[in-house]
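#struct-pred
JK: can someone run the complex with magnesium ion? inputs below
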Amino acid sequence: MTPAPTPESAEVGAPPPPPSKKPAPTLDSKGPQRYKMLATWLLFLIVLIACFYQVDANFFDLFSVNARDNMNRILGEMVRPDWSYAEDIWEPMIETVQIAIAATVIGSILAVPVALLAATNVIPKKMVSIPVRMVLNLVRTIPDLLFAAIFVAVFGIGAFAGMLALVFFSFGLVAKLTYEAIEAIDPGPLEAMTSVGANKIQLIVFGVIPQALPYFFSYVLYAFEVNVRAAAVLGFVGAGGIGLHLDQQLNSLRYDRASIIILITLLVVLLIDYASTYLRRKLL
Amino acid sequence: MMIEFKNVVKQYPNGTIGLNNINLKINEGEFVVIVGLSGAGKSTLLRSINRLHDISSGEITIDGKSVTRAGGKQLRRIRRDIGMIFQSFNLVKRATVLRNVLSGRVGYHSTFSTMFGYFPKEDTEIALDALSRVNIREKAYIRADQLSGGQQQRVSIARALAQKPKVILADEPVASLDPLTTRQVMDDLQRINRELKITTIVNLHFIDLAREYATRIIGLRAGEVVFDGPVSEATDAKFAEIYGRPINEDELLAAEAAKGGVTV
Ligand SMILES: Nc1ncnc2c1ncn2[C@@H]1O[C@H](COP(=O)(O)OP(=O)(O)OP(=O)(O)O)[C@@H](O)[C@H]1O
Ligand SMILES: [Mg+2]
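RT: done, structure tokens with the ligand placed:
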């Protein structure tokens, strides 16, 4: 199926939401609309220039002698990786994947009841859905590295803080995508379950879950992909995983070792992305 | 079961009058067909019986018990006794046929035992029996979306039967089927009505079909009952009265069938 992407779930690379019945908004560039468009572009340009100015963006810096020399030196060391270091790196790499797995599983399980509460076709009470969605949006606005930094401060340096950070992150991601998927399911079976005399939980078990489950699993896999990548850099704030080692090697200017870490991370991430994409395609 | 409408009015939130002072008595074992133009209130009438729609005033009773005032568990108990069949089948398409039919049994079990999708063996028997009644027992373990429209509608009839209902409501059950499967599905409904003495109320828009299967026809127009009587009294002239205009070709299944080159 190839549903049109809805603006609501504009996760980069996120799996497509189930087909929604909303008609696509039509673009009309006639009359005053055209001036609006022009004004928007103008504003955009002004903001862009202001940003460049603010961050001292300078195209000449990109090609300066200094930068070129640095680049040459680092790349030169990186293309001669210290292969013997690979042995030491497998363990933290596995730990990174373990952090991602544990966080994805726990976050996704927590996401299920919350997604059900947020879906207005399951619980048609604004008193419930609005506060639940507010909490969800709040969780989603906090970046994973910020979570990690906070948990490192609270629980100390280590993998536990990193896992906790990713639990929150995957919880927010999976809950949001899942409740949107639930709201787009076929209402027919829900109506049928109501008519056979089912209560709310029975309606969920027999009407909602069978329809939403493939979407949910696909979002869990997607969260796992994102988590592996995030777990690889959590170490920079002391939250465990391979990032800690990358940070150390970079700080001691061992680019030959840093390149090994990057290579192995790339390999693992690619492998997981590939497997997960394949599974997701099978699911939907 | 006897269903009684007393001064029933249904006004939608946007002000539309769905039902306007309906008074009806539907007796046990009847096969009632409701006819009327699109928007006459047929679906509204049917759905107010099992409270998929709430009515604005008046009262609906089943065997003397008020549907209108029932709530919570009591309402779910009433709904359990009423099977409903929809135009769009309303099956869970990715689930097996058997699973869909079993879902008709949930009203008989506690939340806890159904939460894990567990059903006792007798329920599987009941579900398979229901499938046999509509002649698709052999499809029990196939996914619902792999069946034809007519077969899916029979699965939904089986789901209603698995409820062991005393009343069956069917809202345009054949509107998305071809003339041949239309007859098979109507035959199933008729057989169930006769063999199990289940009171059956069906909305139809083909008037020849209504005459053929009904024991009683109720005509609605703008939310009011404008005809109520046996088939013998439902003449073409009466139908023209219900519709407020002469009968159209496309209101006859025979004409549809002729168009499609199928003889019925
Ligand atoms: N949810 C709703 N909100 C507002 N008005 C509604 C709603 N549902 C139905 N109506 C209106 O109530 C009237 C009766 O509708 P109903 O669906 O019962 O007609 P019907 O006889 O079943 O028609 P059809 O043959 O098209 O199914 C119509 O005027 C319709 O527009
Ligand atoms: Mg209708």
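RT: quick notes.
The interface with chain B takes residues 186, 188-189, 191-199, 201-202, 205-207, 210-211, 214 of chain A (CB under 8 Å).
The CA atoms of residues 118 and 132 of chain A lie 6 Å apart.
JK: thanks, will look after standup
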